[in-house]
Every structure is written in C-alpha cells, then in structure tokens.
Design brief:
The chain has 414 residues and is of the alpha+beta class. It has helices at residues 7-20, 27-33, 36-41, 44-55, 113-123, 155-168, 202-211, 215-225, 227-236, 251-260, 262-270, 274-282, 311-324, 333-338, 394-409; strands at residues 61-67, 71-78, 81-89, 95-101, 126-132, 140-142, 148-149, 176-179, 198-201, 308-309, 350-359, 362-370, 377-384. It folds into 2 domains: 7-101, Nuclear Transport Factor 2, Chain: A; 113-409, DD-peptidase/beta-lactamase superfamily (Beta-lactamase, 3-Layer(aba) Sandwich), CATH 3.40.710. It has 15 helices and 13 strands. The longest helix is centred in the last third of the chain and has 16 residues, at 394-409. The two termini are 35 Å apart. 48% of the residues are buried. The model has no long low-confidence stretch (mean pLDDT 94).
C-alpha cells in the first residue's frame, strides 16, 4: 500500500517511518512536524513516548489508506496488532491531529437505496447526488438542495478556463507560469516551496492543481488566464451563483478572508455582488497570512469564506471538461483528471475524473465514473458543519458516494 504524496500523506508516511525507525527523532524534529494546537495537547516528549511504545511492536505496515489532502485514516498492522491511524494537517501542512485507535467496526455498505438515504440523512450535514451526463434529472438526490461549500472542487472551473485558453490560442500546455510572491499560497501543495522566478509548465501546474490540490499552482493558473476567463468558465456552465459569487477568490485570498484579516472578512461576508467582492479582493495584503492564523477550529465558510456551488453546478463543470477532453486542446484532460481517483469504486466503474475539497468544517468529493454500456455518471457528495468537530469522517462521507455508485451500477433506481 503506497501512501499518496499529499500534505497529509507526507505526514502520515513520516509517522510510519518514525515508528519503524531504529532511532527516535529529536524533540525538535517532532515539533517541526506538528501544529501548535496539537503540541498544546501533547508535547514532543509525550509524542516520542507514544512512538517508542509503538516501535517495540513493529515493524508496521500500511494495510489501507483513505483520505484527501488534509485528513486521512491509515490502517496499520504489526504482527497480530492492528490500528487505525488518523492524521489531520493544517493549511501549512503541519499535523493538527494524530490518533491511534483500534480499528472501527467496518462500515456496513448500504443494503439498498432506502438504507443509503437513511444513512445520509442520519449523518445530518451530508448531501449526495448521482447524475448521468446529459440526463434531464439526477438518478439520485439525497440531502438539502441549494449551494454548498465545496472547497477545492472549484479548481475544476480553473481547469476549464485553462483549456478554453488553450483552445483559443492564448495559452499552450507547454507554456510556463512563474512562481512568485503574488501567486505563492499556503498548502496544500508543493509549488509554494519553489523560489521566486521558478517556471513550471501549464500542464504540470494543472496536474498538481487537480491531483494534489496544489494551491500555488491554482493561483498561478488563475493569473495566467485572468479573472475574466475564470468567470467566463463559470458562465459557460450556467453557474447558479454568477450574479453574486464572482469574482471568485484565489486560494491565497481565501486564507486572508477566512483567517487572516478580520476587517476584510467582515467586508467579504457583507459583500452583495461582484463590485463589492472585487473591491475587497483589491485590498488584500501582499503575501499570505501567518500559518498560526489559520485556526483549525474556526469554520470560515459560515461567513462566506469558501467557494460555493450546487451539486448541479459541479455536474455541469465535469460534463464540460469531459466534452473538452474529446478536443485537441483538451487532450491531456483525462490524464489530469484521473491521476488521483480519491477512493476506489465497485469494479463495474472506472474513475475517469476526481476532484475533492476540504476546509475547516467542509468536505466535498466529485467523480466522473464510466461503465460499458452506460452514460458517464457524475457523483457529488458534500458535507459541512459550523462545528468542525461535528463533521462526519471522510471514509463515511465518501463511503456514501461509493455505495450510491455500487447500488446504481447493480440496477437500483432512485
């Protein structure tokens, strides 16, 4: 089992290496891995003691892994001992949580669509949609309608703007974008670590934006195509909030609006349309807020600091990207969109596109699935909670999507 090279995956792999190491790391090395909020609960010495106890049982191997960019659960085993290792990271990529526990009872897949509906509704803050591309109505809808915070799922529209620019001849996949302070964001991602002036191809930036949700790659691409092009991509998919939710913020802007500047956050929350939103974005400070400002207990989406869309909006942008994938300009799209499938689905389905998103109190996933003899099918699941502690776990939320695909693939009807 290979742990993916995501912000949370990198930290999870470090923990595995630590509990398998011949020698313990120093307290300073441990402190560099953990957020201040986590170290307030357990000191570096406490953590080293836990790692030492686990080391005596090793070596440990990873038997399962489910996660997005910010949180994950890895099944680990040593001999007859099995544990679930839950890891969460901050926007800066430092661990905000690390928990070892006996494996939870395996989640029972929904027996039928009625059972699935009950499970989703009991989760309290989850909505689920399954829709065939081109169909007049979804095959399945559970949960509240309207717009939901979607986190990094918004990057699908950035990708659409990029391929539109390629088609128009304004950009090429081989062109480069430059990494500098104007586009450097906080993690997730890798490109924020590159020095000013580094050039990255448009193709590589797009790959990282989708596969590892690289925020700096996203902002570099948004600068390359321009704000108007991203708004045009939203418009061409009939985005439901075009009158109120444009221009959409970059990821760097979102960190300022969510956690970095209280007065800007208040203005953003009160902004009623494009002109007021643009004025707030024009007043953003340079750079990024300090990592310590990003509070993992403060859900910023409740004051409008996120990207919002209906499930139908997400279906529409996936449909547009699949359409573009059949063109010369969009030739790389299927490889870009399928590099990270998020989770595994029933064998009847192939994952041809995935984009997830998460923020404090927010979790979202979206997939395009294909099966012989069936239209391409989009699955969208979202969860949001004002109290981040009440947000259902990722395996639960994404498990609903897996169940829906399995049941509908077997011929169940919504």
């Amino acid at each position: 089992m290979t742990i993916p090279d995501t912000p949370v995956g990198t930290q999870a792999q470090w923990v595995i290496d630590e509990i398998n190491a011949g020698e313990a790391s120093s307290a300073g090395e441990v402190e560099a891995r953990f957020d201040e909020t986590a170290l307030a609960e357990l000191s570096a010495d406490d953590l080293l003691a836990v790692f030492g106890e686990l080391r005596t049982l090793g070596p440990w191997t990873v038997t399962s892994y489910e996660g997005d960019d910010a949180q994950a659960v890895a099944g680990i085993s040593a001999g007859t001992t099995a544990l679930d290792m839950s890891v969460a990271v901050s926007a800066a990529g430092r661990m905000t949580g690390l928990f070892f526990a006996e494996p939870a009872p395996e989640r029972m897949p929904a027996a039928d669509l009625d059972d699935l509906r009950t499970q989703v509704e009991d989760a309290g803050s989850v909505s689920l949609t399954v829709a065939e591309i081109g169909a007049d109505a979804p095959a399945l809808e559970i949960g509240t309608g309207g717009a939901h915070p979607i986190g990094s799922v918004f990057k699908l529209w950035v990708l659409l703007a990029v391929v539109d620019a390629v088609e128009a001849g304004a950009l090429a996949w081989e062109d480069t974008v430059t990494i500098d302070a104007e586009v450097r964001s906080l993690p997730s991602g890798e490109l924020q670590n590159l020095p000013d002036g580094t050039e990255v191809s448009v193709r590589e930036a797009a790959e990282k934006m989708i596969a590892i949700s690289d925020n700096t790659a996203t902002d570099a691409l948004m600068r390359a195509v321009g704000t108007d092009a991203v708004t045009a991509a939203l418009a061409e998919t009939d985005y439901s909030r075009l009158a109120t939710d444009v221009p959409i913020p970059t990821t760097r802007a979102l960190f300022w609006l969510g956690w970095g500047d209280e007065s800007l956050a208040e203005r953003w929350s009160a902004a009623s349309g494009p002109a007021e939103r643009a004025a707030v974005l024009d007043d953003l400070p340079d750079g990024v807020p300090p990592v310590s400002a990003v509070d993992p207990t403060q859900a910023a989406w409740t004051s409008g600091a996120d990207w919002f869309a209906t499930h139908a909006d997400v279906v529409a942008v996936h449909a547009a990207l699949q359409d573009r994938a059949a063109t010369d300009a969009g030739a790389p799209l299927r490889d870009i969109l399928s590099a990270n499938p998020g989770v595994e689905f029933a064998s009847a389905w192939d994952v041809v596109a995935y984009k997830g998103g998460s923020s404090v109190g927010v979790l979202a996933g979206s997939w395009v699935l294909e099966s012989p003899g069936r239209p391409a099918t989009v699955v969208v699941v979202t969860a949001a909670s004002e109290d981040p502690g009440d947000l259902p776990a990722l395996p639960t939320v994404f498990g609903f999507a897996q169940d829906a695909a399995a049941l509908l693939g077997d011929g169940a009807t919504g």
